[in-house]
Design goal:
By secondary structure, the protein is mostly helical. It has 2 domains: 1-76, 434 Repressor (Amino-terminal Domain) (Orthogonal Bundle); 89-132, no CATH class. It contains 7 helices and no strands. It has helices at residues 5-15, 20-26, 31-39, 46-56, 60-65, 77-88, 91-124. The N and C termini lie far apart (66 Å).
């Protein structure tokens, strides 16, 4: 017999070695609400299923119907760690982190553009006269 969705949800969380608190933060749900989902008191809705699948790399067919495999791929641990950190920040620091990430992306793009330009110039000159 296939276990009900609430038991499959708990199995996913325990397989990821996450507490209810950390797991529920990753799917933007209060820990108390999530705990009631695991016990079957609250229904596991489509939003929760979609977030669990997206956030933790879970196979949707497993959550909905119990069809293996449990995971559709390996969860990206960098993204998972970033979610954990981001969710622990207050709103002001979350906004600051977003601004800083955008600035880092600009710097990266500028550096990549400079490298590309250097390669173009280096291809035009001979021998020891390379510019970059």
């Amino acid at each position: 017999m296939i276990p009900p969705v609430n038991e499959r949800l708990k199995a996913v969380r325990t397989a990821l070695k996450l507490s209810q608190r950390d797991f529920s933060k990753g799917i933007y749900t209060a820990q108390s609400v999530y705990a009631r989902m695991e016990t079957g008191e609250n229904k596991v809705n489509n939003r929760v299923i979609a977030l669990v699948c997206y956030t933790y790399g879970v196979n949707e067919d497993f959550l909905r119907e119990g069809k293996p495999p449990v995971f559709s791929g390996t969860p990206d641990t960098k993204i998972e760690n970033l979610y954990k950190i981001f969710n622990e920040l207050n709103s002001l620091f979350q906004d600051y982190l977003i601004i800083q990430a955008k600035e880092l992306l600009k710097v990266q793009n500028q550096q990549e553009g400079e490298k590309s330009n250097c390669q173009k110039f280096d291809n035009l000159v001979e021998g020891d006269k390379k510019l970059c």
